[in-house]
Amino acid sequence: MQNNLKRTVLLSMFIALCFIGSVIKMPSPTGTVAFDSMPAFLAASLLGPIPGAVIGLLGHLMTAASTGFPLTLPIHLLIGFQMAAICWVYGLLFRKVNRYLAVVIATLLNGVASPAMLMLLPGFGMGFFAAMVLPLTVGSLINVIVAFMVHLALEKSSALKKAGAIVSDQKI
């Protein structure tokens, strides 16, 4: 019971941090590049790929909602699911393969692959990709690096041990 409560509180805290990050925007053509994914990447490394994916999806939807869904709700749902997949991959790579590789892959997936996949949809194209790739890659890199650095700081401190968290393959 206490583990479920602790997990629920942690998930709620990360979702709240996504909301805060969603209102801190970076310049981009759509206005939806923000600091909403940093808590999702951090959650993926601390809590696991699945919680990170859920938080990544919710974080993107909060950012898109705060700008009025400029690409339409269905497109932002698609992007949200892309974000969920990216956070899941980050969490898996971070915990099972290599932390540094996780940073590189997550940045490239979010900054380059995600807008490239949208080029296949009607109304999007090379112009959309060209406009979004730089701000999205820079925003992705900042979000991932900050999450990585916070994870390392928590790992070095006794905060994770006091909270009863194990950062390796075990769950909080």
Provide tags for this entry.
single chain; 172 residues; mainly alpha; Arp2/3 complex 21 kDa subunit ARPC3; 7 helices; 74% helix; 0% strand
Can you walk me through this structure?
With 172 residues, the chain is mostly helical. Helix content is 74%, strand content 0%. It has seven helices and no strands. Residues 166-172 have low confidence and may be disordered.
How far apart are the termini? 13 Å
Number of domains: 1
CATH class: Mainly Alpha
Could you give the order of the helices and strands?
HHHHHHH
Poorly predicted tracts of residues: 166-172
General shape: globular
Number of strands: 0
Tell me which CATH architecture applies here. Orthogonal Bundle
CATH level 3 topology? Arp2/3 complex 21 kDa subunit ARPC3
User: Average pLDDT across residues?
Assistant: 88
How many helical stretches?
Answer: 7
Q: Strand share of the residues?
A: under 5%
Q: Major sheet, described briefly?
A: none
Helical/strand content category:
mainly alpha
**In angstroms, what is the radius of gyration?**
16 Å
How much helix is in the residues?
over 70%
Task: Give the helix/strand layout.
Layout: H1 2-22, H2 38-46, H3 49-66, H4 73-96, H5 99-118, H6 126-156, H7 159-162
Helix pairs in contact: 1-2, 1-3, 2-3, 2-4, 2-6, 3-4, 4-5, 5-6
In short:
This protein has 172 residues and is an all-alpha fold.
